[in-house]
C-alpha cells in the first residue's frame, strides 16, 4: 500500500517520502476506506515543519493527512451506518496521505452522489470548523449580522455560505482579487482589506465578528466592527489588547464535537454549499511536495487536492 510520509521535521523536499505500508487490521468499531482523494491542509504543513512538536509527538515515518474521501472496502461488525461499496467522507486523526486508511466508524459518513471527490475531501476540516463554531461555540448568541474576515479562504467562504443558509446578514472582507468570489457565494457587503479601511467601513455593525484570517492586523479592524457587547471569535490568536467590551472566544477542536453530526450537516447542504478548489494534483510524491510548497507561499483561494486516477 502506497503512502506519503515525513521522515523527520524539515522542508517539504527534504522530508516527504513515499513508503510501502502494511494494511492495518479492522476491528469491530473501524472501517477501511480505499481513498479516491485527500486534501492538503495548513495544519499538515505546520506538523511537517515541527511547529506542533511541543504538544504533539510524532513517530517517524509519519503519514500526514486528516481529510479524505473514498470507497468502503471493509466494515467492523459494530458499524451499521455504512457498508462495503459506500462512497464516504472521512475525518481521520492522521494517515489520509495514501491509498487507504482505517478509521473509527464515528469518523465518516456517506458521501452524496452529487458531491465530487474533490469537494468531499477538501471540505472536511474547514466544514468541521465552520459548523462547530457557528452551531456549538457561539450558538444562539451569534446575532443577525455577522462579519467574516478572510472570507475567501476555505473556512471563511464556508462560513459565509452557512450563515446565509441561516438567513443572516453577512459582511465580508478579503483581498480585492477575491471580491468576485466572495460576492458570488452570498456576502451582503464586501470590503477589500488591501485597499480599504474595513474597520471604518463596517464600524459597530456586527453582532459577531469571526476572524478567519491567518492573524495579524485583522484583530484591530474586527474589534472596530464588533458592536459593543458582541462576539469576537478568532481561529488564531485573539487580539492582545481587547479595546471594546465583548465576548472574546478562540475556536479550537474539541472532543465534545461530533464528526458524524457535523459531516451529516454538510451532506444535507451538499447542493447549497460550494467549495473553491484551487488545484487537483495527481497521486504522486511530487504532487504532495508541490502542494506543501504552495501552501507555504501566498496561494490562490481554494483547496489543494491530491486525487487518484479513476
TrEMBL record:
One Pfam assignment: ADH_zinc_N_2
InterPro entries: ADH-like_N, ER, GroES-like_sf, NAD(P)-bd_dom_sf, Zinc-ADH_QOR/CCCR
Gene3D superfamilies hit by this protein: Medium-chain alcohol dehydrogenases, catalytic domain (3.90.180.10), NAD(P)-binding Rossmann-like Domain (3.40.50.720)
Domain Enoyl reductase (ER): 10-306
Molecular functions per Gene Ontology: oxidoreductase activity
Presence of the UniProt keyword Ribonucleoprotein in the record: no
Keyword Ligase found: no
SMART domains: PKS_ER (SM00829)
Assigned keywords, A-Z: NADP
Domain of life the protein comes from: Bacteria
The protein's name in its UniProt record: Enoyl reductase (ER) domain-containing protein
Amino acid at each position: 500500500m502506497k503512502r506519503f510520509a515525513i521522515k523527520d521535521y524539515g522542508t517539504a523536499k527534504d522530508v516527504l517520502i513515499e513508503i510501502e505500508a502494511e494494511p492495518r487490521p479492522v476491528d469491530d468499531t473501524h472501517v477501511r476506506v480505499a481513498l479516491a482523494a485527500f486534501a492538503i491542509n495548513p495544519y499538515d504543513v505546520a506538523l511537517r515543519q515541527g511547529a506542533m512538536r511541543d504538544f504533539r509527538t510524532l513517530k517517524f515515518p509519519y503519514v500526514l493527512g486528516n481529510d479524505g474521501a473514498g470507497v468502503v472496502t471493509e466494515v467492523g461488525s459494530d458499524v451499521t451506518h455504512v457498508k462495503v461499496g459506500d462512497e464516504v467522507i472521512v475525518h481521520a486523526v492522521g494517515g489520509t496521505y495514501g491509498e487507504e486508511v482505517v478509521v473509527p466508524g464515528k469518523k465518516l459518513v456517506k458521501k452524496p452522489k452529487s458531491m465530487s471527490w474533490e469537494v468531499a475531501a477538501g471540505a472536511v476540516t474547514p466544514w468541521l470548523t465552520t459548523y462547530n463554531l457557528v452551531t456549538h461555540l457561539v450558538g444562539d448568541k451569534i446575532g443577525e449580522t455577522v462579519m467574516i474576515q478572510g472570507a475567501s479562504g476555505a473556512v471563511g467562504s464556508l462560513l459565509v455560505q452557512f450563515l446565509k443558509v441561516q438567513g443572516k446578514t453577512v459582511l465580508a472582507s478579503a483581498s480585492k482579487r477575491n471580491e468576485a468570489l466572495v460576492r458570488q457565494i452570498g456576502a451582503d457587503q464586501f470590503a477589500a482589506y488591501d485597499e480599504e479601511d474595513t474597520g471604518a467601513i463596517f464600524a459597530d455593525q456586527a453582532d459577531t465578528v469571526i476572524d478567519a484570517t491567518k492573524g495579524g492586523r485583522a484583530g484591530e479592524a474586527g474589534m472596530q466592527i464588533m458592536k459593543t457587547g458582541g462576539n469576537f471569535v478568532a481561529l488564531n490568536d485573539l487580539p492582545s489588547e481587547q479595546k471594546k467590551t465583548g465576548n472574546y472566544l478562540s475556536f479550537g477542536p474539541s472532543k465534545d464535537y461530533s464528526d458524524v453530526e457535523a459531516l451529516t450537516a454538510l451532506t444535507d447542504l451538499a447542493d447549497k454549499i460550494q467549495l473553491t478548489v484551487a488545484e487537483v494534483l495527481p497521486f504522486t510524491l511530487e504532487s504532495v511536495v508541490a502542494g506543501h510548497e504552495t501552501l507555504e507561499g501566498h496561494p490562490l483561494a481554494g483547496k489543494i487536492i491530491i486525487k487518484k486516477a479513476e
